Amino acid sequence: MDGGPRPPTIRSVHPRLLLPARTTTGPETLAEYRARGGYDGLMRQLRDGTPERLRADVAAAGLRGRGGAAFPTARKWDLAARSGHDTRYVVANGGEHEPGSNKDRFLVEQHPHAVLEGLMLAGIATGATKGWLYLIEDMHGPRASAEAALRELDDAGMMHMPIAIHLGPTTYVAGEETAVLSAIEGKPAKPRKKPPYPGEQGLFEKPTTVNNTETLAHVAWIARNGAEAFAAIGTEQSKGTLLFTLGEQVRRPGVHELPFGATYRELIERCGGGLANGRPVRAVLPAMSCGFLLAEHLDVPIAYETLRPLGSSPGCGGVRLVDDTTDVVALAVEIAEFFMQEQCGQCPPCRMETNQFVHILKAVQQGKGPGYAEKLQKLAAFSHKKGFCSLIEMAAAPVLSAVRCFADDFAAAAGPGAPTGS
C-alpha cells in the first residue's frame, strides 16, 4: 500500500432526508410534517429518552455541523451539557449571507418544523431552558414560515421550551456563531475572541449551543430514524446528506440534496441538468470560502476526507461553477472584494490581509507583472489564525487556490512587467 488516503465507501445512493417529495407547495404545515413522522423523535425522547442517550446517538450517527466548519455536533453539545450551569441556551443559526448559498433560507421557509424539532431536541440534549431561531433581516419568507410554525406548535401544546426569533443584520460576519450571540444580546454583530467558547460562556454569559439550521434538521431525522440509519448513509468519515445550492449557471437552479459520496458531476448534471450555456465545466468552487476543484476532480466523491487532500472542503454547499469562458482572475478579484467589504474591521490582520489581497489581484488585472503569488502566500501565512473568527482563513483559501489552479491565466494577465505591487 502507498499509505495515501483510502477512497470513501459509498454506503447508500441518493436518499432524501431533509427535502422530501411533496404534492403540495409552500411551507410544510404541522399536519404535513407529522404525517411523515415529524416530532415522533421528540415525543419518543420526552417519553423514554435521556439527554445522555440523545447525545450518544448523535455521536454514533457521526453528524457534523452543516454551517461549513463541520465540527462534530455531539462534541459541541457535550461542552454545554457538562458545564455545570443551571441556565443554558440553544440557538438555531440560519444567518446565511454567503453569496451562492441559499439552503438555510430554503430549509426554514419550506420545512420550518424540521428545524424547530431539531432545536428542541438540542435543548433537551444540552439542558437548555430557552432557544432562539436566528435569521437575517431580509429573510421575510423564512421568518413568516417560522412564525406560523411556532403558532401551530403553541396551539397544539407542543412547545417543549420557549423559542424566540431574532433577526440579525445583513452582513456576512453576522452569521458567525459568536457574532450571532452578540446580535441576540443587542450588541454589534461582530465575532468574539475564543476561548471561551459559546458552550462555556455564550448568551448572557451562560453556556450556549449554536447549531446550523441544516444540522438541526438532521438531528430531528436521527431522533426519528436512529443513529445507525444515518451512519449508513455517506462515507466513512462524512455521514448523511448535504444540501447544495446551484445558481443560474445550471438549467435547474435551486437547492438540491445528495448524500456524501456523490460527486460534483452528479450534482451538476443529474440535479442541475448541466450548465445552462452548454459549455464544459472547467472547475468547481464548493463554497466561496473553499479551494477550487478542477474538472479532473468532478468524479471524486464529495466527503471531508477526500476533498481535504485536494485543498478544499464541501463547505456550506453554495456551489459556483467555472466554465471555459470564465475570467478566473476577475472571479478571484470578486471573491477578494467580497471578503474585504464584509470583514467587520475589529481585527487589524484581517483588515490588512483582505485589503492587500484586492490590491495585489487588481495589479495582476492591470498587467503589472509577476511576484503576486509570493506576496499573497506571505500575507496569508502572516495572518493565519490572527483574527477572532476564521474569516482570515476563509478569505485566503479561494484566492490562493485560484492562483494555484489557474496559474497560466494569472501569468498571462500579469504579463512580464515589473513585479506586482512595486
What would the keywords be for this entry?
422 residues; alpha/beta; Rossmann fold; Ubiquitin-like (UB roll); de novo design (two linked rop proteins); 4-stranded parallel sheet; 17 helices; globular; disordered N terminus
Top-tier CATH class of the largest domain = Alpha Beta
Number of strands: 9
- Main β-sheet description: 4 strands, parallel
Strand order of the largest sheet: 3-2-1-4
**Approximate shape:** globular
* β-sheet strand percentage: 5-15%
Q: Looking at CATH, which topology of the largest domain would you report?
A: Rossmann fold
Helix fraction?
40-55%
Oligomer: single chain
Descriptive notes:
The chain is built from 17 helices and nine strands. By secondary structure, it is of the alpha/beta class. The chain folds into three domains: 30-231, NADH-ubiquinone oxidoreductase 51kDa subunit (Rossmann fold), CATH 3.40.50.11540; 241-323, Ubiquitin-like (UB roll), CATH 3.10.20; 329-414, Up-down Bundle (de novo design (two linked rop proteins)). The protein has a four-stranded parallel β-sheet, with helices on both faces. Strand 5 and strand 6 (254-259) form a beta hairpin. Helix 3 runs antiparallel to helix 4 (73-81) and helix 15 (372-383) runs antiparallel to helix 16. It is globular. The N and C termini lie far apart (48 Å).
